[in-house]
Fold this protein.
Amino acid sequence: MPNNNSNRHCHFIHIKKLGKCFVKPEDYDSIVWDLDGTLYSIPALKLKIIKSLYKFSVLKNVLNFFRTESIIQKERQKHLFGLQEYKHEFYAMQSFINSYLDQALVKPEALQLALEARNHNLNQLVVSEYPIGNKLELLGINEHFHGAYSCCEDMGCWKPAEKTARFVLSKLGNPKRVLVIGDRDDTDGKLAENINELLNKE
C-alpha cells in the first residue's frame, strides 16, 4: 500500500479481494466505486430474480437482459457506443433490475470501507456504466458519496473508454492518490490504468 509521500497514482482493487486485504483510507484522497456487482451483490440479486421466474413477465425481462448485455459487450470490444439503437430495451433492463434492489443486497465489505472513507473525508464517487437513477437511494447508501455518474448518460461511452478517465478526474478535482474499486478487470481495472496514466502526465 502507498504512503502519504507517494507520487500521484491510481490503484485498482477487485471487490473480491476487498475483504481479504487491509485498505487504509488515509493512504488515499479519493475512491472511485463501480456500482453493479461492487456495491451490491449480483449473486444475491440473481437469487431474488430466480424466485420470481415463474412469472412470464420476469422471464421476458431476463431474456431482454441477456440480449442487451450481449450487445453492450460487443460494443465495448469494438470501442463503439450505439445505445440509441436499443434504448428502449436498455432502459427496460434497468427498470427491471432496479425493481429488485434494496439494502439487503449491499456488500458489507464495501459499506464498511465507504463508511471509513467518509469518516476520513475522502472524495468518493460512484461511476457506473449504467444509469444511476435512484439506485443508491434504493440501496440506502447515497449519503456516503459526493457524486454518482453514468458512463452511458454522462459520458456517452462504455468503460473503459479514455474519456471516462478524463471525466472522473475532472469531477475529483486535483486528486493525487486514487483508489478504484470494481468487479471487472477489463472495465474497472482498465479505468484505473487510464486514470493512473493521466495522473502521471500532469
Remarks:
- Residues 38 and 156 are 22 Å apart (CA to CA).
- Strands lie at 9-14, 30-33, 123-128, 147-150, 177-182.
- Residues 1-5 have pLDDT under 50 and may be disordered.
